[in-house]
User: Fold these one by one.
Assistant:
Number 1:
Amino acid sequence: MSRHVAFLLALLLAAITLALPATGSRAAELVMFERAGCVWCARFDSEIAPIYGKTEESQAAPLRRVDLGRPLPADLSGIDPGAFTPTFVVVKEGREIGRIRGYPGDTFFFGLLSRILTGSGSMPGRS
């Protein structure tokens, strides 16, 4: 392979690598709006947070925590966090596709989240 072809392939690979994070940012994410002293946030932390990363829901919508005691991140400026904490908002391609107000307990949390993800097409293979 000539040096010219190798150089072009390296440039192509670099361009693809740089484009991947932009594509990945379009995946759904579960944004948890929380604040210090929130008892229901603490319950979520003890009941769901330790296992969430191991679930299908986490693969479809990784958890992102946002402290309401700080300014909202710029990419969430169009999302209303609501008055209650925790509030869970599923965001896909920068738009809200569903929300869970408050923490309904471990029995109902995954059912509600799965319904949102399935309805948005983020959980393939489920109906």
Note: Residues 15-25 have pLDDT under 50 and may be disordered.
Number 2:
Amino acid sequence: MIWEALGAVFIGLAIALSATHWLADRFPSRTLTLATGPVATLFGALLARSILGPGYPVQVMVAALAMGTALVSLLARPPRRRMRRPAAPLKGHRTA
């Protein structure tokens, strides 16, 4: 069980580091993301182990990966875009 927990923490740290590396502008805080990744995967691993029982380490790691990815993605914000001018209305069409 200790190896599954350590593996889950390392997977979560890898998820968080890759998320902050590739999508740095979308996450509000790097420290929050780096803390959420390992905690989320550890929670996912413990939840999967309690449901499946002992003897399923690969399935537990897959569940931990899924839970960590899902919870880290909840922190992401939409990309910042420049404000555009509103488009000119088409000729002959009414606007509301």
Note: Helices lie at 2-22, 30-52, 57-73.
Number 3:
Amino acid sequence: MSDSADYDPLTPRRQKGTDTQERKMPRGVVIRLFAYLVAGHVVAAFLYVLFTVAGKG
């Protein structure tokens, strides 16, 4: 019997100890995600302060 009977093209064998590019997120995506999180929190803090000040007046 040949090895081709057990071959699955969707899950190829990988050598142990090697890391592929697929496991890491691109650096640009990480930076953009961090920037969006910071900007989102700044906007949320501004709205919170805005409504807090407006609610007291």
Note: The mean pLDDT is 83.
Number 4:
Amino acid sequence: MADAAGRLTKLAEEVLGAPLPVRIRAWDRSESGPPGAPTLVIRHRRALRRLLFKPGELGLARAWVAGDLDIEGDLYEALDQLAGLIWERDDAPKPQRAAVLRALARPEIRAAARELLSLAGAPVPPTPPAEEVRRRRGPLHTLRRDKEAISHHYDVGNDFYALVLGPSMVYSCAYWESPEATLEDAQRDKLDLICRKLGLREGRRLLDVGCGWGSMVLHAAREYGVRAVGITLSEEQATFARKRIAEAGLADRIEIRVQDYREIKDEPFDAISSIGMAEHVGRTQYAEYADALYSLLKPGGRLLNHQIARRPLADEEAYHVDEFIDRYVFPDGELAPIGRTVGQLEDAGFEVRDVEAIREHYALTLRSWVTNLERHWDEAARLTSAGRARVWRLYMAASALSFERNRIGVNQVLAVRTPEGGASGVSLRERTWTG
């Protein structure tokens, strides 16, 4: 069993056909790999069993969440080096995948795999971490299944989210004047930008779909004098938001409901904000989502749809949500290219007036959240679980790199339910955002 790290490095390099860009430290304290590089720490050989029984991303995710696998050194550098080697990506070069498959067919690699089996120990599949969503049944995006998915992501403790998000309690991309700005200022600027794009003013009625902890409706009511309804499927978010609203003395202007967008039967609104919510809708339901929001707006009313987008694929049918995100972060969540989102909003009847890409802003936001989590690590793990904290650290750091490398983006789409006469109500110089 001596020098497990050296044997694992040799196996990895034979499969990849290239030097391993990180060091490995194994459970037997052996180390191998380039000096000074981030270190992949295999704390227990159970991590190898997780990979053998579930090769690929899910096995790695389980090892990470369980604490069998860790990274020492710069987390971002390590993830950047490993991306495309051990994590599948939709944009990963196909020749590289083919080379790995060819390598696995070679006799010497099969021999190395047998060695891996000997390193892994008892051939018993480890139990998945408690933080993993178990296999779901039934059709996607029913009212019940969506509520369960939202609960998995958001009902992990308001105090935990307060550590990560900071005082703003906004869980979506901030809007940065510069990288030196504070997270709180950038989140305030984002909320204010949305209010201006929506043309909010005294007396208007706002619907915030996926209102989170109430930050958008609070800002809109306090700064622009609107009456607002916020909806969420998370009981914990609703409780927290109602408390904030009462403390701000705005309970007569803001209503928070635990409600699905498909259940709203109110008279039309003057404006709708949907901030970081549409990613949960799913492609099979997106047309219904767009139709529902269109029907809830008065003629001349505006929608601000703030949504993460992925890069388009040559074969869109090949799109799949990666297993780590689906099992640990956003169950049943899906991303769409921005072109499809704009097209579906137009199909619903909207006139799309502006699309603003703010991809780099999300990278800055995520890095700030990771910093907050790492600064309060012990408390965060106590408030939820060590595994859940590890999920969020990996998810947010990897997502920051994905935004920086243009693998995913985020866009604010301003759309209007333009009346038949054609008067949109949007000013001639749209970027001034008055209206």
Note: The longest helix spans residues 386-404.
